[in-house]
Amino acid sequence: MIPEIGHFALILALCVAVVQGSLPIYGAAVGSSALMSVAKPAARGQFILVLLAFCCLGYAFAAKDFSVLYVAATSNSHLPLHYRLAAIWGAHEGSLLLWTFILTIWMVAVTLFSSHLPEAMRARILGVMGLVSVGFLLFMLTVSNPFERLIPAAVDGRDLNPLLQDPGMVMHPPMLYMGYVGFSVAFAFAIAALLGGNLDAAWARWSRPWTTAAWCFLTVGIALGSGWAYYELGWGGWWFWDPVENASFMPWLAGTALIHSLAVTDKRGGFKVWTVLLAILAFSLSLIGTFLVRSGVLTSVHAFATDPKRGLFILVFLAIVIGGSLVLYAWRAPRVGLGGGFDMVSREAMLLGNNVLLLAALGAVLLGTLYPLFLDALGLGKISVGPPYFDTVFVPLMTPAIFLMGIGPLAQWKKASLPELAMRLRWAFGASVVTAVLLPFVLGKWTPLLSLGLLLSLWIVTTTMVNVRERVSHLVGNSFISCLAALPRAYWGMVIAHCGIAVFIVGVTMVKGFEVEQDLRMNVGETATIGGYTFRFDGAQEIKGPNYLAARGTFNVTKGGREVTMMYPEKRLYSVQKQMMTEAAIDSGLLRDLYVSLGEPLENGAWSVRLYHKPFIDWIWGGCLIMALGGVLAMSDRRYRLAGRREESPTQAQPQPLGPEVS
Amino acid sequence: MTPRQKRFVLIGLGLVALALAAVLVLNAFQSNLVFFFTPTQVANGEVPQGRSFRIGGMVEQGSLTREGDGLTVHFIVTDMAKRVPVTFKGILPDLFKEGKGAVAQGQLGADGTFLASEVLAKHDENYMPPEVADALAKAKAAGAQSSSTLVVKPQ
Description:
Radius of gyration of chain A: 27 Å
Number of strands of chain A: 11
Helix content of chain B: 25-40%
Number of helices of chain B: 3
Shape of chain A: globular
Number of helices of chain A: 20
Strand content of chain B: 25-35%
CATH class of the largest domain in chain B: Mainly Beta
Oligomer: heterodimer
Distance between the termini of chain B: 64 Å
Helix content of chain A: 55-70%
Strand order of the largest sheet of chain B: 2-4-5-7-6
CATH architecture of the largest domain in chain B: Beta Barrel
Shape of chain B: elongated
Largest sheet of chain B: 5 strands, mixed, barrel
Number of domains of chain B: 2
Number of strands of chain B: 7
């Protein structure tokens, strides 16, 4: 009965979504306030309905209702409750429900925080989001229904893929989807602006916090996924350039470009058309990412479904959304206007450079991800594009981008002077170069990439310091601290996010440069030393988990004779799917991770063992979290909250006299 | 410079940057493509020498042997028509099993042994990498062997 209620709620939600997607947009076009006012209650009603459906599916999992096909396929009576609930998004149908649910959450957020928007704008935004929702609900109801019954009911479920039975499963997909779907708000803003034909600085200011919010979620979501792969897959890598990873990385690149382009539209009224295109692109890539990963086109742990009907629906849906918005763009964009001009050396030009580089990187990832799929679809052979390709392409593209990242925030809008910039940055540059060249020698090894990585992160940090100092010296205040506090939060957000990139680069550089990996055979009592740490293998015992059997190894780790820690890696055999799983043991630290995983049992209690010493690896995820933190700070700036109340009617872009301030 | 000239210079610079990026990308792309071959193709000598490629098929039952160091393994990958011996040093993935599909990346040695630098088998129990299913289907279609015991179940 409960699953039928959920199913019914989805059907009702579809009806509401159709209303929400049509009446308000029509109302905005003809100027009917009554029709436009439908948007808000419709969005909230749809949220309640989808929430109800979501809860019904959750209940079916909690109550182990194996007469629901989806529940039987992705859970098992021995699966602990929290994983049964996480199994809601453990496969295709449920992930779509999660996607739609999150879309309605964003809708409600828009209804709550849009009181300052003109009514037509709000109606159009909610209308566009309603239309997106129509697509997803239709998809679920026609070919991918999570509430489909299995009659007769299964005695027990097939269990969740053991790879997914992990705390990461509880957090990673919802975070990632909050990011993906969050771009639908930026997308809806862009489409609304195209429909309304008024795209100005106020528009950019309204959509900035939404875009930044989505970007923060996506950043955290990707970082969580990367961290999860690191400890769960037992290979010790943190990024494999796997197509599914790329699928989440491409919207991130587009979103990052969008954030920076929005800054120009907001402050200078420039890049308008470009910003709109980026908003469309970011959301389109989110859609492609969702479907690419979940549709089974890509073979990986993320992909579950392979049903040609679904593939067709997906293609049609993508064609409508992307094609439709591009047609609208081509039709309406000329009305939007180009915005103010700027000099070749100016902050605008540098942000444009940043955008071009980010998009070039995006193009490179897209090529490496989709080309094998096309070739395969055309029957021209099977190929794969390995990580070396992405590494070779990324470093040269990101190096100039990061160089610009140091200069950009210091350059003036409209027209800057290169000699003057060089004067201001000469100490930062000198200090970065000298330290970057010398530091690797201190650390014991010099390679060009090591120096380059350190140079880039030092460059970010030193230029940021110069920037903060200059900003403070312009302020008249009592103390240095009160001056710092007087700087706007949006500015601090940028500073912190950029420093997050620096931290991230340090992590990547140090791991690539100094990590030690060793596969070896260890007898009981034998020791091995890597990176100054001595690992003693004390044998493996059998233990029993709720739905698995495991061999658990015991490792005693010492450094210079002093005990550091004990580590317990496991090799699990999950009973339902008869699948082996490696649970690595990781000892995390600020400056290094120790990583032990069990390979295979050999004779006399010996095991093949994998030992890693990974310096600074936690900085990679730390950097991502710092970036997201910067985003949160930027979002909370008062100008976004005050802006609306100050100007009810949108005004034209007004050059801000304040000078350096971006993102 | 007039604004018009400025715009041209900007667009020109942008195009140059894009062209550079494109050259870079395509170059890296060309040299990092990894092609996939079936054991039959390997046996027919269709594979590149001195370049890394992938092979895929079933790991033959009873073919897995381990050297004394506990790390170097030998096994045979077959598409039920031809067999290719593979050597790999390292820890095999969890899902690597005799009688299951696997994909290996590496180079072909002079003696016809495939020296794998990486072995991939990272999906679930019943999953068959599409490349493998394809290789098996191709070999079967070629009529090389009328195997009736093999059930190819791409999920």
